[in-house]
Amino acid sequence: MKIMPNRMDRGFEMFQQEFEEKALEVLRSGWYVLGNEVRSFEEEFAGYLGAKHCVGLASGLDALWIAFRILNIGEGDEVIVQGNTYIASVMGITINGATPVFVEPDEFYNIDASKIEEKITERTKAILVVHLYGQASNMAPIAALARKYGLRLVEDCAQSHGACFDGQMTGVFGDIGCFSFYPSKNLGAFGDGGAIVTNDDKIAEDVRVFRNYGSEKRYYNKVVGANSRLDELQAALLRVRLSHLKELTQERERLCGNYLQGIENPLIRLPGIREGATSVWHQFVVRCTEREALIKYLNEKEIGTIIHYPIPPHLSEAYQYLGMPRGSLPVTERLADEVLSIPLYNGMTDEEQDYVIQALNAFPGA
Ligand SMILES: *Cc1c(COP(=O)(O)O)cnc(C)c1O
What we know:
This protein is α/β, with parallel strands linked by helices and 366 residues long. It has helices spanning 8-13, 16-29, 36-49, 60-70, 87-94, 139-149, 201-210, 232-242, 245-262, 291-300, 330-338, 350-361, and strands spanning 53-57, 78-82, 99-103, 124-130, 152-156, 164-165, 168-169, 176-180, 194-198, 215-217, 220-221, 284-287, 339-342.
């Protein structure tokens, strides 16, 4: 049996008729950018999260860099972020000229809250919290630190649509929550998309103006902005997906419950969930010190896997200028050598999942 790491076609097939009807409706409407679909999606997604405002943007990366731009965080400023994140989190900081200050992750692969305070300097302006792999970060101590030092709190929720900490959804803990709707995300569009959410009226208004060439009124430009608009087609299709997000998340929880129960191999370490946090299981990430052998073994059984992420941002070519050689972040670097995401997607059958579980349990080691 051939099993791919992800199957976005399954997520389409589940609600195919709804998607097709909605797409035709938009195509026939004659209105394609910034219209009723975007407005409705923004209202519905803000409502889902319990946020006051949502502003649709063109991508998750745009949400991140526009967030820092609107907060006026740039050259000479430092932003604290975990070392083991997708590189887009870091680019959101550095596009504005600010400097990322990396903190090692905890056992749940999110920022280790107990290691943040020692990294705060007089240049620190914000903490960027990434809810990696779908699990909410340890928000109570992080929010307390942000308050204590007067820092902005920004959340990268590109992998955590609907994940909670102490019953509150990610995205609304700080000043701005940044979301991506890239097709493979838990709330995925059929192309690129993103959004910021906020409870602050001024921030929402500033982002709304910024995303559209800095203009509130056509041809009257208040600031030098960007063209970063969620389009009507994506917004319309996202409304369909959002109406099913609770059941889609429940399905991922069920699948990952099966993995947690079914995988029993001392060579494979399973993920854990922090007390008080929930995960929407963007990825099911295991650890294995013999990862290369495990990948090869699974490939022979036609089971595909992905590494999220093989090169931590500080070791990537793009960030050589930060001058952080191997050894700078040992926990992060070790994770990059050991983590492996096994197949997980909405619409995964029991037969497919049992095949993966049996293969993992039979892995003999290198
Ligand atoms: C996907 C992702 C992004 C970037 O989102 P895009 O829509 O692809 O620009 C940012 N941060 C994290 C953690 C992501 O997983």
